[in-house]
Write a structure and sequence with these properties.
Elements lengths: L38 H23 L9 H11 L11 E9 L6 H18 L6 E7 L3 H7 L7 H12 L5 E7 L6 E4 L4 E6 L3 H17 L20 E10 L6 E3 L2 H15 L5 E10 L8 E3 L4 E5 L25 E9 L7 E4 L10 E4 L3 E5 L5 H5 L6 E3 L2 H18 L7 E3 L4 E4 L8 H32 L7 H22 L3 H19 L2 H4 L6 H47 L1
Pathway: Glycolipid biosynthesis; glycosylphosphatidylinositol-anchor biosynthesis
Subcellular location: Endoplasmic reticulum membrane
Protein name: GPI transamidase component PIG-S
Length: 585
């Protein structure tokens, strides 16, 4: 079937569209017809400001209290005292007086000059405590006349008391040289501050003896050096010494001994404690122990009829496991405890004798241990007879034996303080007899101890305060309590007072002040508030607190910045709309 196709009608040509007129009109996204509000911005900024103002309170809450310390004064004290205890920068004036009897008076000025030169020579070659020397030669006047009337041929005790009656009252070291007819030259150092030389001596020999007695005896205490090392000073850091006297019964099944210690304390120890008061605060305690065998071995000697232990056994004599000596209340503190032990051996080793390195038996039958104390072995009389008793009874050591024991203890105590325990000094110009004092220490020895302990205490004070100063400055987060600041202040004041007293020649006062200065410095350095706290730097503090506050702070800061940016954009839109409205109108 044929399909008739019709031609489609002609399409209507498209009419051209009119072109729109391009006029600039702001879009809805770039205009803002209302002024942007400040509510969101104000809230965000208020949170940020609150964080900023809270930061000082946070810093204050973690702030470390630090009392101000006088660092400059501490450095000044350290520079004044010096770093060497053997050469301290202290000024101790020492006044000497030489009295010549039966010499040519026309050579007085020459003798005085020779004595001064010899003193200068001796003090320059050895360590001396006296930095200021003054010499006076007396060959006339009332004192010279009174001394000329003294009988130097009598006993030494009477001569010493006579010189004390003539020369007493002044702290001047005096040496009397009496030229006599005797070939034997006798030199004696009294228990006060006086000495004398009697015999046929020339002027040159007299000058040498006078200078040696001044420097070697009066100044240096009869020692070659004027000072003892600090580690051998038997005084605690708090200026106290505890004398602990112990009576040890090795085996109470053989015999039991007791003592009347109170009588010895009142008669013998009280004067010693009073004399050493400026140097140390001394307290005394006693105890009796049982079942206290020694640790070392001894052997029987048929020749001496006793058990022998030598000096090689001394380090093992003290039995620290069985001898419970440290029962004092001061054992845990900073006080120095000196142990003095009377050892009663058992019947199996009685009599027990100490053999010296030269093979002789010790007369005292005792020994000392530096910085620890001393031991005396006391053998009971009739060792074999008493040991046969089945029921030993308690015996009391007689007063005579106890007095002998404490005389030995006194010699050991002097040795622990660095002084001589014998009664002679052997010098280059001769031998000198040293008179013993009832107080255990002569006055010139007490002066020596006061000067020496003043130097050591001030050096220890300066060292401790210097260490504290460096420690505090190296740890900015270290807690410094107000009490520590006061202790440092008082320590410096006491140290300065000790230096002034030393320069004036007040030895006892300088020793007391220096002891206080050292004790306060030690108290400040070992204060509990700085010993029990762990210190950390500011960086560590920041690392601890930043995980808590840094994330929140960053979010608040970023939110404030974002809100400020949004407000600026919206404000520009509003200003643009206002400008367009103004232009069209």
């Amino acid at each position: 079937m044929a399909e008739i196709s019709e031609e489609p009608p002609n399409p209507i040509p498209p009419q051209p569209q009119p072109q729109p007129q391009h006029t600039h009109q702001p879009s809805e996204s770039t205009i803002r017809k209302a002024k942007p509000g400040l509510k969101r911005l104000t809230l965000t900024l208020s949170v940020l400001v609150s964080f900023i103002f809270a930061f000082p309170f946070l810093y204050k809450s973690v702030e470390i209290h630090r009392a101000p310390l006088p660092f400059r004064e501490i450095d000044s004290l350290s520079s004044q005292i010096g770093s060497n205890t053997n050469h301290p920068s202290l000024s101790f004036p020492c006044h000497f007086q030489a009295i010549f009897v039966n010499f040519n008076n026309s050579n007085a000025e020459t003798l005085e000059s020779l004595i001064f030169d010899e003193l200068t020579k001796l003090t320059s070659n050895t360590t001396s405590q006296c930095s200021t020397l003054s010499v006076k030669l007396v060959n006339s006047g009332p004192i010279w006349s009174l001394i000329g009337a003294v009988d130097f041929g009598g006993d030494d005790e009477s001569v010493d008391e006579a010189l004390a009656g003539v020369l007493g009252g002044e702290k001047v070291y005096s040496v009397v040289v009496v030229k006599g007819e005797s070939e034997e030259v006798k030199g004696v150092v009294g228990k006060y501050r006086y000495g004398w030389v009697v015999g046929r001596v020339s002027e040159v020999e007299a000058v040498e003896r006078v200078a040696e007695m001044f420097v070697k005896v009066f100044v240096n205490g009869g020692k070659e050096e004027g000072f003892i090392h600090g580690e051998f000073m038997p005084v605690g850091a708090d200026g106290r010494i505890v004398l602990s006297f112990n009576l040890l019964n090795s085996n109470p099944h053989d015999w039991v001994y007791d003592w009347d210690f109170q009588a010895i304390d009142d008669t013998l120890l009280a004067p010693i404690i009073k004399a050493l008061g400026p140097v140390a605060n001394i307290s005394v305690e006693s105890q009796v122990l049982y079942h206290t065998p020694k640790s070392s071995f001894s052997f029987w000697d048929d020749k001496r009829k006793g058990y022998i232990f030598s000096t090689k056994d001394l380090p093992f004599f003290v039995n620290s496991n069985e001898w419970h000596l440290d029962t004092s209340i001061a054992a845990g503190g900073r006080s120095k405890i000196l142990q003095f032990v009377v050892y009663i051996p058992s019947a199996k080793e009685c009599p027990l004798l100490l053999q010296l390195p030269n093979g002789e038996i010790s007369k005292t039958n005792g020994f000392i241990s530096p910085m620890w104390g001393g031991v005396i072995v006391l053998n009971p009389q009739g060792c074999l007879k008493d040991s046969e008793s089945q029921h030993p009874i308690r015996q009391t050591i007689s007063h005579q034996d106890l007095q002998k024991v404490f005389e030995v203890f006194m010699g050991q105590f002097r040795q622990l303080f660095g002084l001589k325990s014998d009664s002679h000094y052997f010098g280059s110009s001769g031998t000198y007899s040293l008179l013993a004092s009832e107080k255990g220490f002569s006055e010139w020895e007490l002066d020596f101890l006061a000067r020496r302990h003043t130097c050591f205490n001030l050096h220890s004070c300066a060292t401790t305060l210097g260490s504290l100063s460096r420690l505090v400055q190296s740890l900015p987060r270290m807690i410094i309590m107000d009490e520590i600041g006061k202790q440092v202040k008082y320590s410096l004041e006491a140290a300065n007072l000790a230096q002034r007293n030393a320069s004036l020649g007040h030895y006892d006062a300088s020793a007391v002040s220096s002891r206080q200065a050292r004790s306060l410095a030690e108290d400040a350095f070992f204060h509990p508030s700085i010993m029990s706290v762990s210190y950390y730097s500011f960086e560590h503090c920041f690392a601890v607190y930043s995980p808590f506050f840094l994330p929140v702070s960053m979010h608040v800061l970023l939110a404030a910045l974002r809100e400020w940016r949004r407000y600026k954009i919206e404000n520009r839109k509003y200003l643009a709309w206002k400008a367009e409205v103004k232009k069209n109108s």
